[in-house]
Specification:
58% helix, 13 helices, DNA polymerase, domain 1, hpI Integrase, Chain A, mainly alpha
Amino acid sequence: MHHLIDEYLNYLTVEKGASRNTIDGYSRDLSRYAGFVGEGGTRGIGGVGTEEVISFLASLQGEGLAANSVNRALAAIRGFYKYLLREKKVEHTPVAHIELARVWMRLPDVLSREEMNLLLAQPGAATPADLRDASMLELLYATGIRVSELIGLTVNSINWQVGYLVAMGKGEKERIVPVGRTAYDRVKRYLDGARPLLLKGAENDHLFLNHSGKGMTRQGFWKIVKKYAAKAGLGKRVHPHTFRHSFASHLLEGGADLRSVQIMLGHADISTTQIYTHVTRERLKEIHRKYHPRG
């Protein structure tokens, strides 16, 4: 997809006379889009559907991007597919029926506590990779950090004495997030018993390693999530950001205040965090319908 993006950006520059700011913005948005689609396992530009585009836009919103920024990303994707249709590179566009803001500003996908427990129970502890996978999934749910923050953790990112980690967020901003006993124990077990085996005598500061002893990638972790979501038989789309959404929703369901959740998620604006209050209300309505005798 990347060479097609380059062709499109060149078209905007040469034939449309787009400004440098526009080109830079579209380049960033389309590169992120290509990466997201690639991590999801989609093969070829023609295999992308509307659901993947909406999931991408929802992930941007979940990361704290303002509505204008997400709408700009949608505009970039829309223009990209319009160009591909004109050049006969694709036969259809997956963004034809996606409108600005309101369609993609849906409630984020979350798992119930029961579903999350089922998912976290899948990896087991038979191999070093199993221990790594279990600790990564548990830590992601326990802290609500972004995937980029998870794979960016080093062996020194967790304060083992106090029980918190330091995440490097957007704009190189650090924030402190409590880890929790279950995640603490799983990561410690991985660090002591499994990581040295994956490291294979090499030197690497990354906390989570792949089979080659190198730092885990976003794409590699996406495959891990898909593997265990399928194994759990949840019957719904689960992506890495689902853990972040579920973390926030479950905290609020349990009585946490919005400001504390905002700080742990690293949202600059509390209005971004407020979407999870809507998730909680939807969950309460679901519980009422299920358990009330006249629900």
